[in-house]
């Protein structure tokens, strides 16, 4: 069994009496410690898949296995615990608490987990060791995204889920953030799943999962993933 298995997942939303199938029998797997990229056009179902994997949404049918646990069978309380301790989230917008410093933002997340990492050390690892006492408004977009990555990592999660993490950043800053995520995956041996609509990023991943119209239409493995610095788009 793979570390993550998304098996025949269907997700339907009811919208004004009409059923919208956001996921239509989608299946993929990811091994522990892999960097996986989900590619697909707008509306393909990428965010829906990520939200289900992160316990923020539930499947209409199908199984979602994470580290041997079938999270699709979890009740509300179990999902709360799963989101709190097992999953680190990084979003396009950083969602930092504006009146807390970088350090306090990371500490806040670490406090809700049992096996959390030291907040200051984690900020140091993402390159912000000298900006810990700054408030979000005093940091650039790229620096704020580093804080949000540190906040996710400080939870010491099983899985880091990133939804378009460079969507609000310029080309070079975005590249640095992707490099950080790639390096973190390798160095910390953490499983990372990244959503993007930029197909040029495919070579950075161990595994590439292509979504189209709610289905996984192709998965590919890169035997030798390419460092982000060598990818241009
Ligand atoms: N809560 C919801 N209620 C109704 N429809 C939804 C809901 N969430 C998603 N959908 C629909 O499901 C489909 C897949 O959406 P999803 O956000 O997963 O796509 P995506 O690939 O992440 O797109 P994007 O790249 O634009 O974010 C879309 O048609 C969307 O409108």
TrEMBL record:
Family statement drawn from the similarity comment of this UniProt entry: Belongs to the ABC transporter superfamily.
Domain ABC transporter stretches: 4-233
Lineage start: Bacteria, Bacillati, Bacillota, Bacilli, Bacillales
GO molecular function: ATP binding; ATP hydrolysis activity; transmembrane transporter activity
SMART domains recorded: AAA
Statement: the UniProt record of this protein carries the keyword Secreted: no
Keywords assigned: ATP-binding, Nucleotide-binding, Transport
UniProt-listed Gene3D superfamilies: P-loop containing nucleotide triphosphate hydrolases (3.40.50.300)
Record's protein name: Putative ABC transport system ATP-binding protein
A Pfam entry, by short name: ABC_tran
GO CC, any one term: membrane protein complex
InterPro entries: AAA+_ATPase (IPR003593), ABC_transporter-like_ATP-bd (IPR003439), ABC_transporter-like_CS (IPR017871), MacB-like_ATP-bd (IPR017911), P-loop_NTPase (IPR027417)
Top-rank taxon, per record: Bacteria
Keyword RNA-binding attached: no
């Amino acid at each position: 069994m793979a570390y993550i298995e998304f098996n025949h997942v269907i997700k339907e939303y009811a919208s004004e009496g009409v059923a919208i199938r956001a996921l239509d029998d989608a299946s993929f797997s990811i091994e522990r410690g892999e960097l996986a990229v989900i590619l697909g056009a707008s509306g393909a179902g990428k965010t829906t898949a990520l939200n289900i994997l992160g316990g923020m949404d539930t499947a209409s049918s199908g199984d979602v296995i994470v580290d041997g646990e079938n999270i699709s069978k979890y009740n509300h309380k179990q999902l709360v615990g799963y989101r709190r301790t097992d999953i680190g989230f990084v979003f396009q917008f950083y969602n930092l608490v504006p009146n807390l410093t970088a350090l306090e933002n990371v500490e806040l997340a670490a406090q809700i987990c049992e096996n959390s990492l030291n907040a200051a050390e984690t900020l140091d690892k993402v390159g912000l060791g000298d900006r810990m006492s700054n408030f979000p408004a005093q940091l650039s977009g790229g620096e704020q995204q580093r804080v949000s990555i540190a906040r996710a990592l400080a939870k010491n999660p099983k899985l880091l889920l990133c939804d378009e993490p460079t969507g609000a950043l310029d080309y070079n800053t975005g590249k640095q953030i992707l490099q950080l995520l790639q390096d973190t995956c390798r160095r910390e041996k953490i499983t990372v799943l990244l959503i993007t609509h930029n197909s040029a990023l495919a070579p950075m991943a161990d595994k590439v999962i292509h979504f189209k119209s709610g289905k996984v239409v192709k998965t590919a493995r890169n035997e030798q993933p390419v460092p982000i610095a060598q990818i241009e788009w």
